[in-house]
Amino acid sequence: MSTVFKIAEDLRALDELLDECGGELTPETEPIFEAFFAELATDQEAKLDNYAHLISELNRQAVAARATAEGFARVARARERSVDRIKDRLLWFMQGTGQKKALTTSGWTFAVQANGGKDPVLINDGVSTEDVPAAYLRITVEIDKDKVRDAIKAGESIDFATLGERGVHLRLKP
Fold first, then answer.
1. What is the CA radius of gyration of the chain?
2. What's the number of domains the chain is made of?
3. How far is 76 from 69, CA to CA, in rounded Å?
4. Full-prediction pTM beyond 0.90?
């Protein structure tokens, strides 16, 4: 059975043969074309079916793998929350019992430590960006591509942008 690449290669060879014959089938070339297209009809359908089955199977495996990954991610998040709760309880215990020094067991050392990094900034309740001087605001500016698209489609002359072409994709239907 020919591959899709072999079929395409054969089509190019037949196209060249037609060019050599001036676009006309001759008694010598007609049987070549008939044989090719008879084989192509069989090979193409089987090959395309095989590709579609492969794509379908890989899609099914991807969906199953994603579901498995999501399940593992849920378990990981649950374990992380459990770790946080247990550590919070141990911190509560150590602070509540006035433990200033590290506690050491036969296998572990427990110590209450201050967090590193920058000092946290706590914004007072009810304060909005309108209440804060501009020097303390971070402003992000970006191009509104929806407005640019609408303007170009409405016929406005925009010298800094153009509309691109949409891509294509292959759709398979069983």
1. 34
2. 1
3. 10
4. no
Residue 155 lies in a domain: no
Q: Map residue 96 onto helix, strand or coil.
A: helix
pLDDT (tens digit per residue) in 62-106: 999 999 999 999 999 999 999 999 999 999 999 999 988 899 999
If we measure between CA atoms, which residue out of 49, 56, 39, 51 comes closest to residue 2? 39
Quick one: tokens of 168?
């294509």
Which 3 state secondary structure label does DSSP give 165?
A: coil
Domain that holds residue 87: 4-115
The tokens 């192509």 sit on which residue? 40
For residue 169 the two structure tokens come to 């994709």
d(CA 36, CA 33): 5
- Asked, for residue 168, whether it belongs to a domain, the answer is no
CB 149 within 8 A of CB 163: yes
Portion of the chain with pLDDT greater than 70, in percent = 93
